[in-house]
């Protein structure tokens, strides 16, 4: 038996797992419409390769991966693409995003499948390609593309493959039921993973609240000869450890099973470890041995507001409300709907959102079960959050800095290592929603980095422009000096002492030459000359001009707020008259831009009208106040 | 000579001090030349914090001149694009108290970029000349367009446009731009926050 370690902190919330485990996995019927968000994974959204009206078969690729960090998307059933549009997606924001909507035709007709009979003959790259084409991203929750995680660098030897069957969050039982009913598929997926990664150790981590599946998993794993697959003395071992939240976090599980800590900002691969969820293992088995892409998953539907909690084998894209109806959902009892577990999940904006690749649970609690959080009290510095933090951070300090938006301090206190597990919020006696502060601050920190990069870029471009303008100016001066010198030389040659006269003559000559040449001059050359003139006449710094104007305006506004409106009218009037002259000119010259000028003139008139209206409103308002 | 020194300790002390002075002077002089710093480092540090929009709202023709002005004692609250966060960073750097943004110079706004309605553009190049960072592409009598990834949203191009075809539009929002907000004190605004099966209501306990 492998030794097990412990990690810092952690909590023991009520598990509430038994409700959904009384029944076997139920295959959910096919919903009439399936909505498939293009971004169900971490990375670039997939790009649709079907059009509205296209007929698709089950398992057909409907959107392809864009760039290296992305996964494709497949049709979960046969039917017609009826829309590619913005729909509400399951996301904490409740916003809309691009989705492909498929109307099922009920036949559930597969595309031609070419299952591989003997995957042991395939090499690592072929297997990774199959996995990447099957659209597999991590099924545990984060949804990172699996093929990237498996494509480890050659210079880092991976010696340990960890299978994450912890499922530490309350209520969720999808992995538990998966292990009860799909042990052989899991073991087969593990074998394929072993073939790809070639580890010397395979550790299968299960919390001790799922001991009923250990024998089944051990027996299934024993059917595979891992040593033969990897060419090394590989052994697979099922390890059970005490239940504690959040032992299913990747870094926490690695610490429990190997005693090693993943360094801050580092990846498990640095320690020679690759960690995969068992749901991902099943998806890999399906992709390789059955040629079935990732189009369905096991999702727990539970909570006191559903009368029949259980696990469903459900097609991706199935609306949450459709699945809830299968479980006899009592809408009037439900306080809110949560996708994911009670610790790390998020509330759903509406029930029409679809099941996606990372949806492990739909939780429909009653108000008594998961009450609305009471008002947050002041932090009393009790330090319970620091005791509970599995990443050994100081949540109370982070909370303090997050309130003051001290991003540097937050970074110094390693906020990047926060796994957002919610243990700190759970134990907080003041009911402070601590995790939300960290989530917000993490985004702020990332945004600040992006802003700094952009500012750096803008500065470079500004400097380059300043340098170019300076160079053009210098060239102009140099050319003038050269002309003067040439004139002087000419004057000396002719024995004339009056240099000025010579310069004038030279200038006259230049003009003559130009006139003579002017006949053959191309319009483009003329245009460039015009441009030069414009630049010359407006050589004042545009920034300086804008600044002066703004300062004058602001001073005026401060004295009288009505001025601003009057000025708006003035400038609108000016624009109207300008645009009208332009139209007249254009009509006279038969200009090709006439239509655009006319449009601009109309717009200017509309703006004038609205400005006048604003002034009238303002005056009416101010007189009413008086 | 040695005799003279040994008889007059005052001269010995004087000589010793002189020698020391020469040695240290030479070291300092060498150091000043060898480790000379070009420009004013504090100006560069201030400039690195400023958002480089080059918009001129502070009253200076660009970010660098304002950075120089701050180094010479000007107020740190004249930069609306940098906003409150920028003032905080400047206050930290200069070790002064952060002050509220001076609204005489404008108010903090969401990030916007310029957008040219291309079918209305007549190709006059006026906006190209106004853009401080060359983020507008085009040629005379040909359509112009804004390079969105480069645009800082300074809006200096809007005013010179003769056909009024430039809009300032907010940078694309969506799930990728969305972010969590710092929670509100009012719990009714936080109804969607999870992690609620709290110890106060349940029988669970901390480890």
Kindly summarize this structure in a few lines:
The complex is a heterodimer of chains A (626) and B (207). Chain A is α/β, with parallel strands linked by helices and 626 residues long. Chain A contains 19 helices and 18 strands.
Describe the structure.
- The complex is a heterodimer of chains A (626) and B (207).
- Chain A is an alpha/beta fold and 626 residues long.
- Chain A folds into four domains: 18-346, Rossmann fold (3-Layer(aba) Sandwich), CATH 3.40.50.11540; 384-447, no CATH class; 457-518; 553-625.
- In chain A, 45% of the residues lie in helices and 13% in strands.
- Chain A has helices at 124-133, 146-150, 174-181, 183-197, 214-222, 226-230, 250-258, 278-289, 320-326, 384-388, 395-403, 407-412, 423-427, 434-493, 499-518, 523-537, 542-559, 561-589, 594-625; strands at residues 11-12, 26-27, 33-37, 47-48, 55-56, 61-64, 73-74, 79-88, 96-104, 160-165, 201-207, 235-241, 273-277, 296-302, 310-315, 338-339, 346-347, 361-363.
- Chain A has a six-stranded mixed sheet with strand order 2-15-14-18-16-17, with helices on both faces. Chain A has a four-stranded antiparallel sheet with strand order 3-9-8-5, with no helix packed on it.
- In chain A, helix 1 (124-133) packs across helix 4 (183-197).
- The model of chain A is unreliable at 532-539 (pLDDT under 50).
- Chain B is mostly helical and 207 residues long.
- Among the domains of chain B are: 41-105, 3-methyladenine DNA Glycosylase II, Chain A, domain 3; 110-174, Alpha-Beta Plaits (2-Layer Sandwich), CATH 3.30.70.20.
- Chain B is 32% helix and 8% strand.
- Chain B has six helices and five strands, in the order αααααβαββββ.
- Chain B has helices spanning 2-7, 9-34, 41-49, 63-71, 83-94, 126-130; strands spanning 112-116, 136-137, 145-146, 166-170, 205-206.
- In chain B, the strands form two sheets. Chain B has a two-stranded antiparallel sheet. A two-stranded antiparallel sheet of chain B has the order 2-3.
- In chain B, strand 2 and strand 3 form a beta hairpin.
- Chain B is elongated, with a radius of gyration of 30 Å.
- Chain B starts with a helix and ends with a strand.
- Chains A and B meet through strand 1, strand 17, helix 10, helix 13 and helix 14 of A and helix 5 and strand 5 of B.
- Strand 1 of chain A pairs antiparallel with strand 5 of chain B, so a sheet runs across the interface.
